[in-house]
Amino acid sequence: MVALKTVFWICFLLVFYTYLGYGMLLWLLVQLKRIVRGRAERPLLLPGDEQLPEITFMVCAYNEQDVVDMKMRNIQELDYPKEKLHVMWVTDGSTDETNDRLGRFPGVEVVFSAARKGKTAALNHGLSVVKSEITVMTDANTLVNKGALKEIVRLMQDPKVGCVAGEKRVMARNNAQGAAEGEGLYWKYESTLKRWDYELYSAMGAAGELNAIRTSLYEPMAETALLDDFVMSMCIVDKGYKIAYTSDAYAMEYGSADLHEESKRKRRIAAGGLQSCWWLRKMMNPFRKPVVAFQFVSHRVLRWSITPFALMVLIPINVALVMLKAGNIYTIAWIAQILFYLAAFAGWWLDKRGMKNKLLYVAYYFLFMNLNVFLGIPYLISHRGGGTWEKAKRG
User: What predicted TM-score, i.e. pTM, was given to this entire model?
Assistant: First the structure.
């Protein structure tokens, strides 16, 4: 029984720390850092237009003919000197009218590869010909806010910043689009953690929806990378630079059309997370960069590897302890687990019928994300030879 109790508490503490405890500890460390610092740091100032650096705004695309016009209108509305903004589309094996539609816009550089090799190959190809100091990367189906580029440049005034992570904002076309709401709630919490991570030292990764790097820091990645944006940005951290996070540069996109489509994304992200943990395993060594190792393991490694298994192990271990009459605390814990899974089931049941309850849906989406970690394992095995994937349909 002692062994069962030990396993129970290890699993419980892992789950609690990964999803709540790290956020609480991070908030406390940030408050302590503010007190120790004693005064606000001098704000980073944006240089005048004549001193602004040249930027390449790069979009990697595969068969995106339906969004080319929307994306180009959005780019044209960005607040940045036009003579210093270079627009590049890297079209990876597109077989539709993407290239033809881009040809209607003067000044757009199209870097085309006839064979579809995946986004990582497209990044390697595009960045090999970029000449500007800063490269901003964004997805074809996102809308970037007008002031994003100047905010990115402002943060790059800190020479320790090698990458800037923008905020991802998820939109829903209607109130019944539960997948978008669940994704949006997740990203709100994730954005808060990224902001605190950056204030402590560095954000742990940048999302492909909107990020920027100092072009000179980029090193070509293996084309089999499933989370190219994450690996790219974390390699920059490993070089001794920081990832700055800002909510004043953001990309908006519609959430997945439904949870079946969202599962495609989550499986790929889970597979990419496992792959990234292995590829970046040296960053877990606390003797190399202690703060980075603490943030990386706490924010990323646990949720992509050990903790989902701990969550599932809690069920049979808790049942066994209740049956062995180990104590009231285990009975209470089992009742709490039952209530949680009932809430998740109710969230699923309501979503199937086009109804929603935010509290119940949070339980459902949390369970949904963790289950997709297990689905990510066969996905990773089946995608070891390439970096292409099936795109999820947006709402």
Answer: 0.90
